[in-house]
Every structure is written in structure tokens, then in C-alpha cells.
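Case 154 in the screening queue. Each case pairs one protein sequence with one candidate compound; here the compound is zinc ion. For every case the pipeline is the same: read the inputs, emit a complex structure as C-alpha cells, and attach any notable structural observations.

Predict complex for case 154.
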Amino acid sequence: MIPLDDETKALFQEVAQHLGGKLVYLRFRPPPLRTAEGELYRDENGDLVIDIDPRWGWVHAFGVLLHESAHLKLHSHIAPVTTREVQAIGIPRPANARSSPLEPPADAMAAEWDSWAEQQAIKDAKERGYQPEDIDWQDWLWLKLINLKYKKDE
Ligand SMILES: [Zn+2]
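Case 154 output:
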């Protein structure tokens, strides 16, 4: 597991909130839903929460961030999860979870944000005199996150 520094964690939360357009608490911990890489739910206080499983590392977590933020933006109803279920970590996952009609629009929106952020990051890199291939993955991630944090609605 890659250690996650607080500054980047905070940036993840800001991006989720900005893209999703709602107040949300983002945490790096295994989601309650068994085998899920990330999960968006409403906790017992009524707060919106995104859990991202940190074990796959930052780059993977970034993909999960975009996907869950898309759900946050797209849906008005977010399923509640009880504190007991959150603590148990391992709610059986419905077999059809990935075939839910809610998934393709979230995937599409996440892909759109990702390619937009990629283009912006390339532009930023060039403006600073770097060739894209000279930039390491951490700087890429930061450039993408910073751009998404300030992304304007079209
Ligand atoms: Zn999903």
C-alpha cells in the first residue's frame, strides 16, 4: 500500500465535492460493500460519504474518485448504509451490481473528466517547458487533480 499524504487526501475530497456539486466526506478505507474499490453512500447522520479502498495505490484511487464523484453528481438518491454495516466492512455485493443502469452514465462521465484533465495537464506541462514523458506519475496526478478542482461547468 502506498502511503497517502494528507495534502493529496484533502485534494481528493475537494475534487469530489467540486465535481459532484455536493458536500461529501471522502475517506481512504475499504468501503462497506464487499469487493468494491469505492463506494458512495449516505451515513446514519445523513452525510454523504465516499470511501476509497487505498490498497491499489494513488492512480487507481484517482479512477475510483472520478467514478464515485460522477455518481454523486448524477443521482439525487444516494443509498443509506448504517454505521454497523460500515464497521463490518463486507456487505455482500449484489451479483448484478456492475450491470446496474446507474453504472454506464457514471463511467462515461468519469471518462470525460479524465480525458479533460489529461489534456489540461499536458497543456500545463508544456507551458512549464516540460515534455509530457519527463513528468512522473505523481506530478501527473497532481496536475490532473488541481485542474479538476477548478474545472468550470460547461
Ligand atoms: Zn459505480
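Case 154 observations:
- Residues 103-127 form the longest helix (25 residues).
- The mean pLDDT is 90.
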